[in-house]
Amino acid sequence: MAIEAGDFKTGLTVMVDGDPWIVLEFMHVKPGKGAAILQTKMKNLKTGSTQERNFNASTKFEAANIVRKQANFSYSADGVYYFMDMETYETYEVAESHIEEKKYYIIDGLEVVLMLFEGNVLDISLPATVELVVEETTPAIKGAPSTQTKVATTDTGLTLRVPQFIEQGEHILVSTDEGKYAGRA
User: Fold this and answer.
1) Which domains does the chain have, with CATH numbers?
2) Residue-level pLDDT at 75
3) Concatenated DSSP letters for 1-18?
């Protein structure tokens, strides 16, 4: 199925130069003379690199055949994360280097969405928030303003700022998009 650059939207996956790319941002630009141009920020789903590219609005692309599957995190060993499709019980392996910063939000049984291209996992989508346990933080400062924060480390190794009233051992919600405290669990 051919897709014109003028029909781009955020999250669309297309084939560019033989690789699957996802559109992160786009903007239509109409110069004074000539055809409209589409300025895009795209991520190569195979390599993980991000590029800003310009296309003529009438340029045609082939849709990337990306399959999305629900899966649960099972375990990790030797730098590999294992996810299981709970319908077929098929296991998918993802290298820690491919997950990057997302590893700090992955906990036992976490349900994620795997993005597959030609049978290979390209990326994982996390839920908006995850529940983590505060492993280490300093005690609250008596009389500190309610807006003051302190550093805390979670059970997954994530370091973030939390309100003064959060104590060691507490369960907190953390935004996976921003890596910030989102509330008590």
Assistant:
1) 2-63 (2.30.30.30), 67-125 (2.40.50.140), 129-184 (2.40.50.140)
2) 94
3) -EEEGGG--TT-EEEETT
Neighbours of 51 (CB within 10 A): 12
CA angle 66, 105, 151 (to 5 degrees): 145
Beta carbons within 10 angstroms of residue 61's beta carbon: 19
Q: Is the pLDDT of residue 58 over 80?
A: yes
Q: Using the predicted structure, report yes or no on whether residue 126 has a pLDDT greater than 80.
A: yes
Cβ–Cβ under 8 Å, residues 50 and 24? yes
Q: What's the pTM?
A: 0.76
Q: Are 73 and 81 in contact (CB under 8 A)?
A: yes
Q: Are 105 and 126 in contact (CB under 8 A)?
A: yes
* pLDDT value at residue 1: 65
Beta strands across the sheet bearing 37-44 = 2-4, 60-63, 13-16, 19-29, 37-44, 50-56
